[in-house]
């Protein structure tokens, strides 16, 4: 059967399910006792398994299956949630993601996952997932087990079936708890002898801790064996006691039916149990939840809103062509309005006005359809921060605010990498090591806040850390060293100007280059990416208190506000985002700084750019004694663009020049005016050097 | 490309015939989107002289090339018969200004001959071949070569 037509849906949905897994795993780490979260992950994993098996991706299905088993164990209270176990599950999800990416890139989705699979299987069997478990870990294991009263054996489906069947055939099952004397020297030998006795009496189906651990003496003094036998418990007890250095033997009958029902329904009891056990299971979390109960409530409300959102999948190309068609409508609307003014017919006027209103509403809906919550970018950060914090051995809490803030899809697609870079930067250079923080009197846990919010026609994204902040002297020394600023200039700079020097290319203040950030190639790339989106990035910092990176982004890239101007008889548009103000000056006010014409503008020397010359506009108008200026900026630099006439401010639809002319000088695009003519949009960044 | 596929099957090829000065040129219809009358063209600064600018083609900003200038022929003021042929090669869509577009013809693919040794004023790389029908000689253009973007960038723009 040809599956290719479903492939796209499969990849999309797989990604969604994996994302859910990631998010919920992070939640689970915060609330290890919340089984609802485990169920959520389990459902996603299960769906994923089914889908990938149907699509014929056996490796994917296989790994998901293994992961599902572990989740099932957690769900049924057989496995306690620990950071180690979550690490393995996270790794499995990582591998799954890599497989899906490989499939979406046309690969076969195959990947060597034997290590993860092994670890998952170990967890499933109730062992510690690490390849070579340390002795103290095993001790801790035993300690946890005893904490809940006594050593407990839990059984999986297969074992339960065995217990049931043997019972039907007249065998009895016992949990034999053996305690060895404290002064025993060769515990493994005693264990071996106990096993020999028991195996003569019946069949051992399970031990706790597992046999391997017992053989390596990785247990305290007590271990438990599940035995199927026809002999009476008293006999077994006596026989085992014959082994020397055994202190006590306890024999309890087990009822497999009870076991099963307990596994399924005994949630209340189990929850209480894990609660007592949870202080032992070290969750050295990236994000420590405040009160688990409130977190739980938040969870539920989040779930409610997500289920009430009904959505359909629409190809982005269709949205684009809808947008294109609508833009044509807007242009025709402009013409119609002009005609109706000329004709001045009452009925025509009313109809046209009505149409304008409706198409206005339509415009906002279509623009909204292209808006995506920033969450689609933010959602991968918690996991990234968790991993990075562990790699860096730092204790970091990431707080995300305003993930529901919406941005145009095109912006969203571009903003991911710069944000990753800034976050890594904050984690690596911003937040100090826990000990350093303690010395400074801060809490050991560093805090990074990622915040998005609307303001006017812009969306702001801020990355704030409460780390070391920036050192003015250190930055200046480096900047002077690298020839980014001169020593004299540096003295006159404000703190903020100094901090923003780190965006200059070839700047890196980290004393050590780490593989996380700090090669000095990043921050200027970040700034360029953001500026190419029509945005801006700035930084503020207080030494010892932390830094804040602020990114300003336009709401949408497809409709922008511009100032229309005329140069001779040609119309051009200048984006409002780069305009500071307009001015009209006398020609006599123009000064000459060497070969450059400049003006004194509010105390600053601003160079003039004669667009007529830059764009080789054919001259048809006569000069008058005034210059019309549009003062534009690029970062901190300014320039005055000399034009001939201001037409006015307008919202325009941004169009590309077509692939044939993609690289025209100082032109960032084009737009279609109400009269059907094309006006070019001036790229101010290219005009300011 | 569509035209080379047609060539190999030795079937009929439908072409649009247009004029530059006294010569007749042909483009396969598969590469032609539409033929427009001359309308307002917005000049784009700092582009080679043969790029006349861009125009609004039903909401799509389309670059316009003056084929006469592209081929190094003398410039001529546009007249009533001047047409813009909207053509597309791969993902590039452009308008070509020609003196007149007057015919659609079916030509036999196997009647296309390589360009004769003595070429006209046009650099021969733009020419796919020539076709002789009755007493007319049609020059079949290679649109991709005409639109070669490398040449667009390589041509001396007026730097300033």
UniProtKB/TrEMBL annotation, chain A:
It comes from the Bacteria. Residues 1-103 form the HPt domain. It holds the Pfam family H-kinase_dim. Residues 559-689 form the CheW-like domain. Gene3D superfamilies: Histidine kinase CheA-like, homodimeric domain (1.10.287.560), Histidine kinase CheA-like, P2 response regulator-binding domain (3.30.70.1110), Histidine kinase-like ATPase, C-terminal domain (3.30.565.10), HPT domain (1.20.120.160), SH3 Domains (2.30.30.40). One of its GO terms (molecular function) is protein histidine kinase activity. SMART domains: CheW, H-kinase_dim, HATPase_c, HPT. Residues 307-557 form the Histidine kinase domain. This is Chemotaxis protein CheA. It comes from Peribacillus deserti.
UniProtKB/TrEMBL annotation, chain B:
Residues 12-152 form the CheW-like domain. It comes from the Bacteria. InterPro entries: CheW (IPR039315), CheW-like_dom_sf (IPR036061), CheW-lke_dom (IPR002545). PANTHER family: CHEMOTAXIS PROTEIN CHEW, CHEMOTAXIS SENSOR HISTIDINE KINASE-RELATED. This is Purine-binding chemotaxis protein CheW.
